[in-house]
């Protein structure tokens, strides 16, 4: 009897249900199942999500060693054959972002040179996603990272709640941008008493679309905090008025460009003065008096804005304040600031390891999203549609 591969749902069978094979095999050889799951992290805290995903899939985590040399170089050693298989690399991003990126790049390249068929990166929180727009003389680092991942050998990416959905256009291969909102909405319905008396709050007008999506799903009201401090964009701050103007006209209110020796015979171009931005007084658009305020966002890192928003909502009459976010980076003094603030609870998913922060602040709660990541892996390997994972997801969500 020849060796026979089992059906599309083979990965979800328990070992006790695995049929016996000929040639003396008593259970399925996982190296023949067509795909393997590896973790690209060298720290124990970052492998927890990978273990949860593989447990749901019913497979063992791939054997590999990822470590740092004494000179801080990253080294990866894959301990089993991957030839002709679909390889999924799970990479959660700890505080040391740059090391995590190098681990992912080096492992992807090692698998590429080991003749893996497809290399799919499972990166729940995509690093540098906030640097996806040009800032004066800066650069779009997110585009650079996308190019590096493609060059290293990745052929597909599974991520969650990109900071801007347009980031998907930076990649030359498919990107599946999953959503954590169903899990956070379920938490609101099951864990927040009297959530029907809540109002969804956007901490800035730019976050209003996400807040509106939550409000419509939960059939709740919507409020927006307006008047958030903006970064200065004065050209005088970075020397963009240099070189000095070569000539000015008395009484002229505009700007004349300097004249070169090739254009001395042409008059200067008069440009209108740009009106400086003036921060409006902070206000809450919407009624939060006597209500539960639930602020929603995709990333919570520096929490000063959230703490200030919580104080404002308390002043406006909200009696409980929750923060719901997909990625809980919670850098620096974030746990202490949350503990000392008017915030009652911060709910984040396990896309980023934050066990240390939870020990420092009992207000931080975690929602597990390994289920949807495992299902995405299974569907991609079996060539099934991903539409089921995006039910009721609108374009603007």
Number of strands: 16
Secondary-structure element pattern, one letter each: EHEEEHEHEEHEHEEEEEHEHEHEH
Strand order of the largest sheet: 12-9-8-13-14-15-16
Shape: globular
Instruction: From the alpha carbons, calculate the radius of gyration and give it in angstroms.
Output: 26 Å
Relative helix content: 10-25%
Number of helices: 9
| Global mean pLDDT | 84
Largest sheet: 7 strands, mixed
Beta-strand fraction estimate: 15-25%
Low-confidence stretches are 1-32, 230-236
Notes on the protein architecture:
The strands form four sheets. A seven-stranded mixed sheet has the order 12-9-8-13-14-15-16, with helices on both faces. The protein has a five-stranded parallel sheet with strand order 1-4-5-6-7, sandwiched between helices. The protein has a two-stranded antiparallel ribbon with strand order 2-3. Strand 15 (345-349), helix 8 and strand 16 form a beta-alpha-beta unit. The chain has helices at residues 48-57, 97-113, 141-152, 181-191, 208-218, 304-315, 334-339, 355-360, 370-382, and strands at 35-39, 64-68, 74-78, 86-90, 118-123, 156-160, 175-178, 198-202, 221-226, 255-256, 270-271, 283-285, 292-300, 320-328, 345-349, 364-367. Helices cover 25% and strands 20% of the residues. The protein has 397 residues and is α/β, with parallel strands linked by helices. The model is unreliable at 1-32 and 230-236 (pLDDT under 50).
